[in-house]
Design goal:
It contains 19 helices and nine strands. With 432 residues, it is α+β, with helices and mostly antiparallel strands. The strands form two sheets. Strands 1, 2, 3, 4, 5, 6 and 7 form a seven-stranded mixed beta sheet that branches. It starts with a helix and ends with a helix.
C-alpha cells in the first residue's frame, strides 16, 4: 500500500483542507518533486514545501509508518540528509537523519475512495479492470495515451534490437537477420528461430550465396532438421526414399565440416497445435529463398518508403520440394506457400518498422524514425483477441499504431496490474 501512498502524493489526491505536521505546523505543498524510479535514494527529489511559513526545497521520503525510516536504515545513510519532509500514514516514532537532524513529519492518509477504487482494480474479474471509465474519457486523452504507448512499444523493440547487435559484435546487419528470423516464428517458435539465426554463420553462407540448394542445406542443417531423428518416425522411410532429404543432409555434412558448424537441438522446435504452413521447415525454406534473392539485407529495407515496397521486399516462396511437402517425407497438395498479406503485415509491424526506428535512433537519422511512425499509421490494425477485447471496452484500433499501443497496454500494464502507471488507471482512481 506504500506504492499507493506515493501515488496519492505524486498526484496531490489528498482531501481538501489544511495539512499539518505532527508538531502542529501548517504544510503547503507547492511541488511534490520528481519521482525517483530507482531503488536507492529518497522517493521524490527537489520538492518545494512551505512548513510553518518557511519555504523548503529538497527531497521527500514516504513510508506507511515513521519507524520504517529506521527499518530501512535511512538514519545511517547520508543520502537522506537533505530530506526536508517525511510523509507517513502512521506516526509511531520521531525520525533522525544521519547528520543528527529531526525531520518534520506529515500525516497523509490514502482517501477511502481512492483505496476502494485501487482494490477494485486489483481484484475485479472483468478485464481490463478500468473498462467502466473508458467510454466516458475524452477522445483527446485516449489518443494522447495511445500515442505514448505506441512510442513506448517501439522503444522497447529498439532496445531488444540494439542488444542483439551488441551480442553480434556490433553487426546491425546480423541483428536484422536475427530479428527477421525471430518473427518468422510468428509467436510460438520465435525463441527457437532466434536461437537458430544466431547459430547460422552468415559469413560462411555468403560464400555460397549463388547456390540456393547449399543455402537451404546450411539453414536446415543448422536447425537440426537434417537429423533423421527429427523426422517423425512414420515418415522416415519415405524421407530417405525420396532422396531430397539425403541430398540435403550429405551437402550439409560436407559444409559443416568445411566451416566447423554444429546444428542446434531439433527438439526445441514446437509443432503442437501449429498450422502446417507455420512449420519451421516451411519458414526456413522461405528464409533461404529470401536470402538467396538478396532481399534479407538491411540496406534494401532502409530504402523502402511505403508499405507496398516492404510487402514486395519481404514476399517469398519455397523451392519445388516444399511446394508439395510440409515436412520431410510427408507429401501434400501443391502450394507455392507464399506469405499471406496478413503475415506480411505482421512482419512489417514486428520487424521492418522496429528496425527502421532502431537504426534511425542508432544513426541519429530522424527521417527513419518518422518513417516508422508513418508506416504504422498506413497499416490496418491487427486483428486478435487483445484488439477485440479493447473494442468491447470502447477503444477501437484504427491503425497498426493503435493496435500496437493496445497490445503494449495489455502486456505491460494490465497483465502486471500496474494500474498506477496507466492514465486510464488514474482516471479510474479518481472516479466517485
Amino acid at each position: 500500500m506504500e506504492k499507493l501512498l506515493h501515488y496519492v502524493w505524486k498526484h496531490k489526491m489528498w482531501p481538501a483542507g489544511e495539512m499539518m505536521t505532527t508538531d502542529g505546523r501548517v504544510v503547503e505543498v507547492i511541488d511534490t518533486g520528481l519521482y525517483n524510479r530507482r531503488d536507492q535514494g529518497p522517493d521524490f527529489f527537489n520538492a518545494k514545501v512551505r512548513i510553518g511559513g518557511t519555504l523548503w526545497v529538497g527531497n521527500v521520503e514516504l513510508h506507511l509508518r515513521s519507524s520504517d525510516w529506521y527499518l530501512h536504515h535511512h538514519d545511517r545513510d547520508a543520502a537522506y540528509n537533505n530530506v526536508v519532509l517525511h510523509v507517513v500514514s502512521e506516526a509511531d516514532a520521531d525520525v533522525l537523519t544521519e547528520d543528527g537532524h529531526y525531520l518534520p513529519q506529515l500525516l497523509l492518509q490514502v482517501p477511502q475512495q481512492v483505496r476502494e477504487n485501487y482494490e477494485a482494480l486489483l481484484s475485479t474479474d472483468h478485464y481490463p479492470p478500468c473498462y467502466q471509465v473508458i467510454p466516458s474519457l475524452p477522445q483527446l486523452m485516449k489518443h494522447a495515451w495511445l500515442a505514448a504507448l505506441q512510442t513506448e512499444r517501439l522503444e522497447q523493440k529498439t532496445q531488444a534490437i540494439a542488444q542483439r547487435a551488441e551480442r553480434l559484435n556490433g553487426s546491425w546487419e546480423d541483428a536484422y537477420f536475427v530479428t527477421l528470423a525471430r518473427n518468422y516464428g510468428f509467436g510460438i517458435n520465435g525463441e527457437a528461430f532466434e536461437q537458430w539465426a544466431q547459430g547460422v554463420p552468415l559469413g560462411a553462407v555468403g560464400k555460397h550465396r549463388d547456390d540456393l540448394f547449399q543455402i537451404e542445406a546450411i539453414f536446415m542443417g543448422q536447425a537440426g532438421l537434417l537429423q533423421i531423428e527429427a523426422v517423425p518416425e512414420r515418415y522416415q522411410a519415405d524421407a530417405l526414399n525420396e532422396g531430397y532429404f539425403a541430398k540435403l543432409r550429405n551437402e550439409y555434412q560436407y559444409l559443416a565440416h568445411k566451416f566447423s558448424m554444429e546444428p542446434m537441438n531439433f527438439s526445441i522446435w514446437r509443432f503442437l497445435r501449429l498450422r502446417p504452413q507455420n512449420f519451421p521447415h516451411i519458414r526456413i525454406a522461405q528464409l533461404a529463398n529470401l536470402y538467396y534473392e538478396r532481399r534479407a539485407g538491411l540496406s534494401m529495407l532502409l530504402e523502402c518508403k511505403t508499405v507496398e515496397q516492404l510487402r514486395e521486399l519481404l514476399q517469398t516462396h519455397v523451392t519445388p520440394y516444399w511446394e508439395t511437402h510440409y515436412t520431410f517425407g510427408a507429401e501434400s497438395a501443391r502450394n507455392s506457400k507464399k506469405l499471406s498479406v496478413s503475415s506480411l503485415n505482421l512482419l512489417i509491424i514486428n520487424t521492418a518498422i522496429p528496425m527502421l526506428f532502431a537504426v534511425g535512433r542508432h544513426r541519429q537519422k530522424e527521417e527513419l524514425c518518422d518513417r516508422a511512425f508513418d508506416l504504422l499509421e498506413q497499416l490496418k490494425a491487427e486483428q486478435n483477441h487483445i484488439i477485440r477485447m479493447w473494442a468491447e471496452c470502447g477503444l477501437e484500433a484504427r491503425s497498426a499504431g493503435d493496435s500496437q499501443a493496445l497490445i503494449q497496454l495489455k502486456k505491460e500494464y494490465c497483465d502486471r496490474k500496474d494500474c498506477l502507471r496507466c492514465r486510464f488507471g488514474y482516471e479510474y482512481l479518481k472516479k466517485k
